[in-house]
Amino acid sequence: MSKTAAKEVLRKLEEEHDRKKFGIIDEKQVPFENYAREYLDYSRTNKAEKSYERDKTSMHTLLRFFRSIHLPRLKSRHIENMKTKRLAEGVSPRTVNIELRCLSHMLNKAVEWGYIRESPFKNIKLLTYEKKPPRFLTKEEVSKLLEASTLWSKPIFIVMLNTGIREGERRRLKFEDIDFENKRILVRSSKTKDFRSIPMNEETEKTLKWLTKNYIPPHTNVSYPRKEHQIEYVFCSEDGSPVLSIKTSLANACRKAGLKGVSPHTLRHTFASHLVMSGVDLRTVQRLLGHKNISTTMMYSHLTEDHLARGVEKLSWVEKKGEDCL
Fold first, then answer.
1. Are 76 and 124 in contact (CB under 8 A)?
2. Which of 186, 204, 208 is nearest to 195 (CA)?
3. DSSP state of 72
4. Could you give the CA distance from residue 147 to residue 110 in angstroms, rounded to a whole number?
5. Residue 228 burial (CB count, 10 A)
6. For strand 178-179 and strand 195-199, is the pairing parallel, antiparallel, or unpaired?
7. SS3 content of the chain, % helix, strand, coil (to 5)
8. Helix, strand, or coil here: 284?
9. Per DSSP, what are the bridge partners of residue 198?
């Protein structure tokens, strides 16, 4: 390289450094459709499997509204228009907010990656809606569910109800993660990529010990000795691969038991709710559930208040002798 060419290269590098230093960037005219593919690659690499699947679902909607718009030309009015049309289509505010959060994160990354100067999402407000307490099963409903379960599904429900593990964590549960000596289960989180230890109660320990030697083919009521290729995953298919979903089995059991509004996540809510109603503090529940933030666990706080109220009502310092004890 000649001295003149070297000076030109140096000049461009210094110019680029100064532009970055003062926040000056050249916005790239990238169509939203192209950027969506890049973002999904990032999501698949950096997010939990469930979050990635949620991003893919949201992307179908986002592409319908913004496919051909170049990123620097995407304005807040386009986003507000999407909100209005999605609600007019009968989509729930919660679903719209999930799509908006995905878009917000995409645009923040676009700023970070130098595609746009600032995000048009900064003045967008999420939709407000009435949030209902999480659905959980009463003790009577749990009994009905287990009675209506098959031999195959009952052990799954028992473990999930007694540990509060997520579906993804249940799917990945291996026998090597179970410590019978110390009565603990090592749970590898599919969401946070972290792990936590959950104590085993007697019912869970009994169920898991039975499963170490016995295998039940899906959707049957017959058990067999476990084969060598079935000793890795606790809940596996006949070929040894993990059982991916229990939605159908849970729906069938709920239909027989006459239960409505129950999903696999309801079993997790049931675990947490009954802990709180038994007097377990929210910090402990947070650790058992594997919540990174206590604010997530606060959805069960109303149960704590009810529990405390019932406790106070049991106090009686004065013996009542009639209608008026004063």
1. yes
2. 186
3. G
4. 52
5. 7
6. unpaired
7. 60, 5, 35
8. helix
9. 185
Q: Interhelix angle for 93-112 vs 32-46, to 10°?
A: 90
pLDDT in tens, the chain (326 residues): 788 877 777 777 776 666 555 554 455 688 999 999 999 999 999 988 888 999 999 999 999 999 999 999 999 999 999 999 999 999 999 999 999 999 999 999 999 999 999 999 988 999 988 778 889 999 999 999 999 999 999 999 999 999 999 998 999 999 999 999 999 999 987 666 678 999 999 999 999 999 999 999 887 788 999 999 999 999 999 999 999 999 999 999 999 999 999 999 999 999 999 999 888 889 999 999 988 889 888 888 878 766 666 656 656 565 655 555 45
Q: Do 62 and 102 touch, CB atoms closer than 8 A?
A: yes
* DSSP 3-state of 45: helix
The token pair that represents 102 in the structure block: 């995905």
Residue in 235, 312, 261 with CA at minimum distance from that of residue 136: 261
Give the separation between CA 38 and CA 48, rounded to whole angstroms.
17
Residue 113 DSSP code: T
Measured over the CA atoms of residue 15, residue 17, residue 19 and residue 25, the dihedral's sign is positive
| Closest alpha carbon to 86 in 103, 71, 69, 72 | 103
**Residue 30 · residue 68 · CB < 8 Å:** no
Cβ atoms 127, 79 nearer than 8 A: no
Dig out the tokens for 212 from the structure. 């170490």
What is the spatial distance between Cα 156 and Cα 149, in angstroms, rounded to a whole number?
A: 10
DSSP, residue by residue, 298-318:
GGGHHHHHHHHHHHHHT---S
Amino acid at 33: E
* 200: its two tokens: 């085993």
